[in-house]
Design a protein that fits this description.
The complex is a heterodimer of chains A (120) and B (407). With 120 residues, chain A is an alpha/beta fold. Chain A has helices spanning 34-43, 63-78, 90-98, 111-115, and strands at residues 9-16, 19-28, 50-61, 82-86, 106-108. In chain A, strands 1-2-3-4-5 form a 5-stranded mixed beta sheet. Chain B is 37% helix and 26% strand. Chain B is built from 12 helices and 18 strands. Chain B has helices at residues 2-25, 32-40, 79-86, 125-146, 152-156, 164-172, 220-239, 244-258, 334-337, 349-362, 367-382, 399-403, and strands spanning 45-52, 58-61, 73-74, 90-93, 98-106, 109-118, 177-179, 184-190, 198-205, 208-216, 265-273, 278-284, 290-293, 296-300, 305-306, 319-322, 328-332, 390-396. Chain B has a 6-stranded antiparallel beta sheet, sandwiched between helices. Chain B is globular, with a radius of gyration of 23 Å.
Chain lengths: 120, 407
């Protein structure tokens, strides 16, 4: 699947009361994914993890990135929690639709929507 | 007198073919073309065999002991290239030389061309051409049979080193093109020297043609291994006569059992029943196949959807639609539609693919040539950018299309 070669990825972690927000900036692909994988693994390690990944500043996600999202969702469910995606870009939305993974992953317009009481 | 001479000429061809079959038995792959010339010397011809490279841009001569090796020939703008692309013998006759460029196929798989130079103009040029085509059909089979026993034939087709991922995938795939009386299946896979997780497969038995295109997540050898696990599981299930849904489940199981991390493969599994005029298909998170009817894109087949292989989906059901003789089906991976132009965000996109497919179909080219041109156009669109895997698989369900792939 598609990828970019010369981009970088930064990940910030913010712990709120009851949930964790991961904010990614840049491109999520085969080459850049390691720091996000580390952050996601740490975030879902606790019992009943509640994790939002803010993708508002991510321009591109490749299949390796998408696999991490599926894995994060699985890990969180296995531990009785949830993993939600906020503000995905057009390219990721297209990828989620094509792969049918929009049926599997919880996608929200904003971080506030993702953490709001009606979310899921 | 003339008939007698012709009878003698035909007899000489028969003898040469029998001699070649005997010589081929103990020939190493690199020696085969020498044996071809040894067997056909009595016919007063000199043959140089050219193999097509993986990018299908140039024809490369097979080296022969004691003979200078000629330079490669471009597919575009040469008589050799026209013989290859059109699968049709080209004659290049002048005062000095009587020469034919004969397409070399294995069944309908385009392997390359042969440069056949006759020392004297033949008495019956038409019979001579037919004899050359028969001979090269046989040489095409023999070369295909010899491929696994040495590296020479593999190396001649390469213009650069091949990645381990490509070695794995290419070993696993059936030939690019298969034709039978009723239908032709053809595929193209780019970039062939550095394949990620793209793969295709097909099998034609009785009235059923079974097809698939796969695209594993990730890159390089790791993606290749993911793809290999899915393809092998599906093949095993298919040969165990399981349904499309169960083939996909077999791939789910293999991917989940074999890999500790999450690995998924998107793909389309399809089967065409040519007696019933039915297409059944299952789409595991893959771009929708394109149905082409009467030369126009009649629609995208958006049914039969499920999660990618490797993510279990118990709700999955195959979609079934009617198919008509003459219909074409185009399967492709997202490397085709997501291909972006240099320095911009201009995706190749589905509408460009639709437009291009319609123009190519209108030219009524042999299916492998249609795909070669589609692939060249997509690569040109990317001009210099890192190339993502792009795979296309075309099925043309008609006798005419099948005939176009025959020399």
């Amino acid at each position: 699947m598609t990828d970019e070669l010369d981009d970088t990825l930064e990940v910030d972690v913010a712990e709120h009361r009851g949930f964790i927000v991961l904010t990614a900036r840049g491109t999520i692909d085969y080459f850049t994914v390691p720091p996000l994988r580390t952050a996601v693994e740490a975030a879902v390690a606790a019992p009943q993890p509640c994790v939002v990944l803010d993708l508002g500043k991510v321009g591109f996600v490749d299949s390796t990135g998408l696999a991490l999202l599926v894995a994060a969702d699985q890990w969180a469910r296995n531990r009785g929690g949830w993993f939600r995606i906020a503000d995905p870009g057009d390219q990721l939305r297209r990828l989620l639709t094509t792969t049918n993974l929009d049926r599997r992953l919880a996608v929200h317009a904003t971080v506030a929507d993702a953490t709001g009481s009606g979310a899921q | 007198m003339r008939e007698e001479r012709q009878g003698a000429a035909e007899h000489a061809w028969d003898e040469a073919i029998v001699d070649l079959l005997e010589r081929a038995k103990m020939a190493q792959p690199d020696q085969l073309v020498g044996e071809v010339n040894a067997a056909t010397r009595r016919l007063g011809v000199e043959i140089t065999v050219y193999l097509i490279d993986h990018e299908q841009e140039q024809l490369w001569p097979l080296p022969e002991r004691g003979k200078p090796t000629p330079p490669p020939l471009a597919v575009e703008g040469t008589a050799a290239g026209r013989a290859f692309t059109g699968i049709e013998t080209q004659s290049a006759v002048d005062q000095v030389m009587y020469r034919l460029w004969v397409p070399m196929v294995d069944g309908s798989e385009r392997l390359g061309v042969a440069d056949v130079v006759a020392h004297r103009p033949p008495a019956d040029p038409e019979a001579f051409r037919r004899s050359c085509e028969t001979l090269m059909g046989l040489v095409g089979h023999l070369i295909t049979v010899k491929f696994p026993y040495g590296d020479r034939l593999h190396v001649v087709r390469r213009t650069q080193a091949m990645s381990a991922g490509s070695e794995l995938i290419l070993q696993m795939l059936p030939p690019l093109t298969f034709s039978c009386h009723r239908l032709v299946v053809s595929a193209v896979l780019e970039p062939s020297y550095d394949i990620g997780g793209d793969a295709y497969d097909y099998a034609v038995d009785d009235q059923i043609a079974r097809l698939m295109v796969l695209d594993a997540m990730g890159r390089g050898l790791s993606a290749g291994l993911t793809s290999a696990a899915a393809l092998s599981a599906i093949r095993a299930a298919r040969r165990n006569r399981e349904s499309l849904v169960d083939m996909a489940r077999a791939a789910d199981d293999a991917l989940i059992e074999q890999f500790p991390d999450v690995r998924f493969v998107t793909g389309v599994l399809a089967e065409i029943d040519m007696d019933a005029g039915l297409l059944r298909y299952l789409n595991a998170g893959h771009p929708a196949p394109m149905l082409i009817r009467d030369g126009r894109v009649a629609g995208m087949l958006t049914g039969g959807r499920r999660m990618p292989l490797g993510v279990r989906d118990d709700a999955a059901q195959a979609e079934q639609i009617d198919l008509e003789v003459g219909d074409r089906l185009l399967l492709y991976t997202d490397g085709v539609t997501e291909a972006r132009s240099r320095g911009g965000d201009d995706r190749f996109g589905v509408s460009r693919l639709v437009d291009l497919a319609e123009r190519c179909m209108a030219a009524e080219l042999p299916a492998p040539e249609t795909l070669r041109r589609l692939a060249r156009t997509i690569i040109a669109h990317q001009a210099g950018r890192p190339v993502d895997d792009a795979t296309l698989l075309l099925v043309e369900w008609s006798r005419e299309a099948a005939e176009r792939t025959r020399p």
